[in-house]
Amino acid sequence: MWRTQYGDRTLYGAEAVVFAEALSSLLDEVISGISDDYETGIEVFNNLTFGQKISTLSILGNGLLRKDLHPVRLTAVLEGAIAAVYQHIQEWITFEIDTPEFGTRWRELVISSRKQTEGNEAERAQIPDPTCEDLDEWDFQMQELSGGVLWDGDYQDAQLYVDFPPEKSKELRGFMGIPDDYFMALAEDLTDEEANAKIKELRRLCDSIIESH
Fold first, then answer.
1. Total domains present in the chain
2. Which domain holds residue 170?
3. Please, are residues 61 and 206 in contact by the beta-carbon 8 Å criterion?
4. For 43-71, what is the mean pLDDT?
5. E strand or H helix at 160
6. For the chain, what is the total number of helices (H) and then of strands (E)?
């Protein structure tokens, strides 16, 4: 389970499938080293080592796709990694639009998820067709989708608090409801052997979600 602004949640149905697909795809890029050659736009995730990325993605997968685990304490690293997963979907959508022969698979996944999570019939009617090529529209859809998991963009604001004196920084964090260790908590840096075990475990979890729908 995962702590969100809507309570403790476990993703299910189409929402779980699109997240599992994106998580598995991002995992592929981390393993292959492709993620080292470009930036996801999420600095807190980009700065992690290989072992830290695997550890963090494993926590996300288990936390969001399994009901039998208690929610973990949220940190900038964990929320930044979630943002990286959703950003990965956005990158695939951009690729689909730029490369029409690639099809509309990722847009279809997002549409299915949005129709599941949007309770208002009028709002569901506004969800675009999979052939839509308006990037601003898809950016909006991704904001709505990721908002079901992410509280806000606090994970991007570490430097803002660092620039203040310690007492002022603590006061500001308290005012914003940010735990003292939110920015300081580090991801576990796994050994290669530990990382390989986590990769196999996470792959099985994602595959089980994808294949069940």
1. 1
2. 2-211
3. yes
4. 95
5. helix 158-162
6. 10, 2
